Amino acid sequence: MKADEGREASDVPTPAAVQEPEERPAPPERPAPLPLPPIPGLREGANTVRALHARWAAEEAMLRRDMPDFSLKQELANPEMRRLMELPGMRMGDAYRLAHYNDALRQTAQTVEQGVVERIRQRSARPAENGTSPGSAAITRADVASMTRAQREALERRAMHGVKIVFENFDTERTNDMKSYNLKMNLQLFADPSASLQNTTGTMTNEMKTFYEKRLIDQAEPRLVHDQFADYYPVPQNGGKTIEFRKYDSLPKADTPLTEGVTPNGQTLNVTTITSDLHQYGGWTPLTDVLQMTAIDNNVVQATRVLASQAGRTMDSITRDVLAGGTNVIYAPKLSADGTRLPSPAARRWTRAAP
User: Fold this and answer.
1) What is the distance between the terminal CA atoms of the chain, rounded to a whole angstrom?
2) Are 315 and 231 in contact (CB under 8 A)?
């Protein structure tokens, strides 16, 4: 046993010594590049784009439930679809319907047209009713009331063979008679002559109400023109009830030549005073709280309007009376027949005196 074991051991080849390769020196490490500074808003923009793509994918899946052939990639090739999708808040389904609005109208029109054609075809294929012959109807212009028994039996035999009998004149005359009858009908023939059954506006007075127009009638106001010629002079508080104005009289014209070496006489100044008394004008309108709560119109607003109108007309009338009480007179210019202004007498005299 030992000899065999030695023989078997000698038959196994011994592996040769393996020469390990020499280790190469590692290359020098390069310094790591410095990280770039983050771009502001890049992360937010990427999140927004991902959210938009996710919403589009969900909407595309919903649209494919009704339209299996729908493809967002193919639809975006349409400029109108791409323009609608760029609008803020636009949904994919709404954009698709707007972009294919004309196509939907044409498809609807074709569907309706096909339905009409199909109904016409079905009616044409329907078997003839009330007869066995598909022939045309027989139209007679005779009156049934004036026909003899033989004529009526002849029509009966024709109807039994499938001929449709139409009395054209009879239907037309019957329709005309009905129209004439409706026009000649007098409803007063059905009226009850009893006065107790006549429901009129005189007997049902409680039902007769007055219509109330909500819009008030505007008052006709006069044009106030006199107050524009008045001058306003404020009087301070505790300044009395009378205001005094002073006026210097004009000096006469010096139309006498002066003498050389002689001093002319002095002139006297004359001061004139004009006084005016202060007067108080006004009015008021009392309104109770019950009136304001129950009245239909807004009486506070209307009272303000009429009081303002009263104040304006009062001031204009007072100014008119003062102007009319003065001595100053202003004459209107004279106009010729063609509307041109004529010169005043003083101007005509000055024109003649001019060389």
Assistant:
1) 179
2) no
According to DSSP, the residues that pair with 167 across neighbouring strands are 140
> By C-alpha distance, which of 164, 98, 97, 101 is closest to 128?
164
Beta strands at 138-140 and 271-277: parallel, antiparallel or unpaired: unpaired
Residue 277, classified by CB atoms within 10 Å of its CB into exposed (0-12), middle (13-18) or buried (19+), is exposed
Q: How far is CA 136 from CA 133, 144, 162, 333, in A?
A: 9, 21, 10, 98
Q: Where does 12-71 have alpha helices with state H?
A: 42-66
Dist CA 353 CA 355 (whole Å): 6
Nearest in space to 92 (alpha carbons), one of 68, 63, 123: 63
d(CA 160, CA 53): 77
Q: CA 138, CA 131: separation in Å to the nearest integer?
A: 13
In degrees, to the nearest 5, what angle opens at C-alpha 277 toward C-alphas 271 and 279?
Answer: 160
The helix (H) or strand (E) run that includes residue 273 is strand 271-277
Phi-psi region of 237 (alpha: psi -120 to 50; beta: other; left: phi over 0): beta
Query: What does each of the 355 residues of the chain score in pLDDT, given as a tens digit?
Result: 444 444 444 444 444 444 555 566 666 666 555 554 554 544 556 777 788 888 888 888 888 888 888 888 888 888 888 888 888 878 888 888 888 888 877 888 788 778 777 777 766 655 555 444 444 555 555 566 677 777 777 777 777 766 766 665 544 445 554 444 444 555 565 555 555 557 788 888 899 999 888 888 888 888 999 888 888 888 999 999 999 999 999 999 999 999 999 999 999 999 999 898 999 999 999 999 999 999 999 999 999 999 999 999 999 999 999 888 877 777 778 888 888 887 766 544 444 444 4
Tokens for 44?
């937010």
271/312 Cα distance (integer angstroms): 35
Helix (H) or strand (E) holding 347: helix 345-353
Give Cα 30 to chain centroid, integer Å.
74
Token look-up 């009409």 returns 116
Nearest CA to 80 out of 107, 61, 101 is that of 101
